[in-house]
Amino acid sequence: MNRLFNKTKNMAVRTFGLCLMLTAAVCFSSCSSDNDPFFTATEDDAPRFLNSDLPKVDDNNKLGSFGTILRTNNFKFGVIATPVDYTTITWYIDDELVYTGDTIDQKILAGDHIVKVVATTTKGLSCYRVGKLTVTSLASDPQMGTNQDQLFVFPGQESKVNGCLNINKVAKMYIGGKEVSNLSTEGDEITFTPPTDLSTGIYRVVLEDAEGNKYGGNTVTVVNNDPVICLNSIRMSIGAPVTITGYNLDKVQTIKVGDTEATITAQTANTLTFTCNAELGEHALTAVDKNAKQVKFFNDYDYVKLLEESKATVVKETTVWEGNVSIDWNLFEEANNQIKEIAAVGTKVVVYGTINASDYHQIRFMGNWDAEGEHKLIFPEYVNDYHWDGNLNDPFRIEIELTEADVKIIKETGFRMSGHGVVITSIAYM
């Protein structure tokens, strides 16, 4: 009986041991499978990130986000890149190398920052991901205002930024590491003079209190004598006039859409209008100044540096309505259904017509005139109506780019216009 039991037990042990060996073999085979790049990539392979939580750039060149943290917390983030045994990870914040290693754990001043993580192999192959990190201030911290127009400053010239918080705590202020002069604060406003030796570019602001504590003040854009174009991207149609804004634009010599040189039709220090016959599709938008230097672009999505190009998408302009309707605070809704059908964020609605009044002219873009709370249905960016320069009988072409708020109004209540002093002859979109 005991011999039978022992024989049975020995068979069970051998069987169990065999099962363990088979299981181990299966597990080892799974980990080293050709389908698993983490383990099988070689030194000669191009690197790639395996994380699914890394930010991406969207179709409009807007950066994805690494998230939002309080300035009292460290920025902590880890990545996995392959080939793991042959790859070095480096981290850049605002174009400055701050850490080498798989997992960053870094304290950062308050503000919007651009984080770039780069994977480089021993053979010199590399890839990267870039995204925006927002570090928020404490409620008691001094904080700069956020009016973008006031955050363009000029070396040696007095600047004022209002809408600040706790700004009376500021004893010193630095732009790009250089102390400003003539610093004063009153209420929610800070007044200062940027250093005269700053060149055109985007600089980080540091605020310092009387005890020497430093706080992030986000960034300002310094404009010296160089032209700067303020533009994220643009949609345009072949041959149609396009107006862009910026600083020192009277110093721009040429502007190109892809390889096609545009025709500049009007030019001041702050606006430039051009037409171009570039082919349909996406193109780089570039410019050169009268000193043969590349013109810089300010992009709302990149708070670190000025860019050397923007994006221009040339599209076909599609007419949805033609006629002749005089507007004097009556309702224009002839293109309601057509615009409601095509409305999307980034779509441009184009209005053609002539001025037929000598006193004033303006157009109101809105949803349903009769809806309760009608003022909430005016397109938010044109809450004071659309105004432009012109004289009696002048033809006009104006275009508006639909925002998320505009599209919501159109989809829910429709597309309508009113105003005074114009005759509308055509509605198109692109």
The mean pLDDT is 88
Look at the helices and sheets and give the structural class. Answer: mainly beta
Largest sheet features: 5 strands, mixed
- Order of strands side by side in the largest beta sheet? 2-9-8-5-6
The portion of residues forming beta strands comes to: 35-45%
Number of strands: 32
- What level of helicity do the residues show? 10-25%
Describe the protein's architecture and organization.
This protein is mainly beta and 430 residues long. It is built from 4 helices and 32 strands. The strands form 8 sheets. The protein has a 5-stranded mixed sheet, with no helix packed on it. A hairpin with a 2-residue loop joins strand 5 (87-93) and strand 6 (96-100). The protein starts with a helix and ends with a strand.
What tags apply to this protein structure?
5-stranded mixed sheet; mainly beta; 12% helix; 4 helices; 430 residues; globular; 32 strands; disordered N terminus
List the helices and strands and how they pair.
Layout: H1 2-31, H2 37-40, E1 48-49, E2 65-70, E3 75-78, E4 81-82, E5 87-93, E6 96-100, E7 103-106, E8 111-121, E9 126-136, E10 152-153, E11 159-161, E12 170-175, E13 178-179, E14 181-186, E15 189-193, E16 201-209, E17 214-222, E18 228-230, E19 233-237, E20 242-247, E21 252-257, E22 260-261, E23 263-267, E24 271-275, E25 281-289, E26 296-298, E27 310-315, E28 318-328, H3 336-342, E29 348-355, E30 362-366, E31 395-401, H4 404-413, E32 416-429
Parallel strand pairs: 2-9, 10-17, 18-26, 19-27
Antiparallel strand pairs: 1-4, 3-7, 5-6, 5-8, 8-9, 11-15, 12-13, 12-16, 14-15, 16-17, 18-20, 20-24, 21-22, 21-25, 23-24, 25-27, 28-32, 29-31, 29-32, 30-32
